[in-house]
Amino acid sequence: MFAVAEKGYAATTVADILRGAKVSRTTFYELFDDKLDCFLAACAMASETVVAEMAATLDASREIEDPFDRLGLLLEAYLRALSRLPELARVFLVEVYAAGEAAIRQRIAMLDRFADLVVGAWGDSGGLLGRGEYQRLAAEMLVGAVSSKVTNAVAIGEAERLPELHEPMMALVAEMVGAQPTRARGARH
């Protein structure tokens, strides 16, 4: 993963991976068919790491009644996880597109899981987001927009700044769904 983050998928060789992982060629080929197979496994691991953190945050927020607040915590967990793991972020957000169709399909599946978490955070609260077909499309579009903005930041080496996107993103989401951010509610009382 670190070799791909440093050199890019196309320029990374199996020899680079072996050096970075400190494993023999024999061990590598016992585990993986080729570089792509290894990359797909690394992306799956990266996705699972981020999704697990987001799911744990969502589970911990079940007591929070306001779906907007739950959504805010979910987005915060996503941004925090990627900023803490910039190499992982680069591999599974940027380099995935250089690895071809199988990697892109895997990325799409992860985005679907992110949309599932958004729908889970919003629950049955109605409005723009939710469990209906149109609402699911809105969740997918929200996830796509967040992913695009985050991917661009990671691509130019600004993964550490991802948490700074939370507040402006949530302000925009508030306008989209007709919610008032908690900070604004608290400031007005």
Key descriptive features of the protein:
189 residues, disordered C terminus, mainly alpha, 10 helices
Can you put this structure into words, describing what you see?
With 189 residues, this protein is mostly helical. The chain has a single domain (35-188), classed as Tetracycline Repressor, domain 2. It is 73% helix and 0% strand. It is built from ten helices and no strands. It has helices at 2-7, 14-21, 25-31, 35-60, 67-84, 86-94, 101-122, 133-155, 166-177, 182-188. The model is unreliable at 184-189 (pLDDT under 50).
Quick rundown:
With 189 residues, this protein is an all-alpha fold. The protein is built from ten helices and no strands. The chain has helices at 2-7, 14-21, 25-31, 35-60, 67-84, 86-94, 101-122, 133-155, 166-177, 182-188.
What's the SSE blueprint?
Layout: H1 2-7, H2 14-21, H3 25-31, H4 35-60, H5 67-84, H6 86-94, H7 101-122, H8 133-155, H9 166-177, H10 182-188
* Poorly predicted residue ranges: 184-189
CATH C-level? Mainly Alpha
Classify the beta-strand content into a percent band. Answer: under 5%
| CATH 2nd-level architecture | Orthogonal Bundle
